Every structure is written in C-alpha cells, then in structure tokens.
Fold this protein.
Amino acid sequence: MAKDVENPCVSLCQLNSEMCVSCGRTREEIRKWRGMKRPEKMATVQKAAERMKALGKHKKKKKKR
C-alpha cells in the first residue's frame, strides 16, 4: 500500500479570508482533506507549498531524532 500523504497542518490555524497562513491550504481544502484520495492530497500539498512560498513562508522540515 502506498504511503499516506502527510497533512500540511502545523496546528497553528490562522485563516486569512479563505486561506490558512500557517499551512497554505484554503478553507475548502482543509474541510475536504479527510475525504481526498492520495493524488488530490498530493496536489493540495503542492498548491499549499506554492502559496506559502508566495507569502515568503517556508514549511520547516521536522528533524528526526
């Protein structure tokens, strides 16, 4: 089975109109996340990353210990 797509949520929800400025997802993407299939989640993560880059924010990678 394919590895599940990691949710881009960083548990700092800050909605600015229709987009979370913490993870880059739209309100609609956040609402639909659980029901999305893997390809749709992958596309959502990519779009969210592009939005965050446009805002000048980059998601920090979690360090493995």
Notes: The beta strands are 15-16, 19-20. The mean pLDDT is 86. The CA atoms of residues 12 and 24 lie 11 Å apart. The chain is about 35% helix and 5% strand.
